[in-house]
Amino acid sequence: MRHFNHSMQSAAHRDGRLLIVEALGKFCDGRAVLRNLTLSVDTGEIVGLLGRDGAGKTVCFNLIMGLMKADSGRIWLGDADVTGWTADRRGRHGLNCLPQEPSIFSGMTVEQNIGTVLEFREPDPAVQAARLELILREFQLEHLRKMAAMQLSGGERRRCEIARAMACDPAIMLLDEPFAGIDPLAIIEIKHAIQLLKVQGVGILISDHNLKDMLELVERAYVIHEGRLIFSGSPVQMLADAEVCRLYLGPEAEQLRRLLSQRPD
User: Fold this and answer.
1) What does the angle CA 57 – CA 247 – CA 176 come to, to the nearest 5 degrees?
2) Gene3D superfamilies attached here (predicted)?
């Protein structure tokens, strides 16, 4: 059951999709860094945005979040055309982003990090307390609640950041390099946290260079190359696509095909 659904309700579906990016374009210094990009994310769906460094993934995230202004195209959250909205207004409408750089409040404890967000969003102290306990339990942070954020490991910090983002009641979550800089055991914990977002109905757009763990998570993937969309489809279809293998995956494609074939249905 979805526990935090105010933003989900406000982002009413447009053709069943929560996030729609239509023909998005961006020029920087006279050069097209993103060209006619179209993608979508549904409720409770994990979608990958893939590409080499410089392909345009970060620009795409910034445009969706409202941190940059698009030169062409539209962005929809549910039935709302948010293309001209500020980042803050998009956030209130259910759009949230976990950046690659640490975003935790290092001078606070784990429960203070989450509680501060809840205090901002929920006026009732009793509801705040109940939601805090629920989030701590669901993201396996109860034993760390009194620990200062600066003392957390990389994986614990990431888990706390995702839990704090959940306190914002997102409908759509953008995850930028969530596996960067953490060990394999912590990656398993982060993947569990991401799956928890999915179960609670959050639509997730994720970008990461760790293709193995990415492809174990996502249901669909978009691949961009030099700002242009070259593929949209399932991970299995992606690994069989000649253009994707030539321009993006290279020799890694065969190893990824073997790993993906071992994934349970």
Assistant:
1) 20
2) P-loop containing nucleotide triphosphate hydrolases
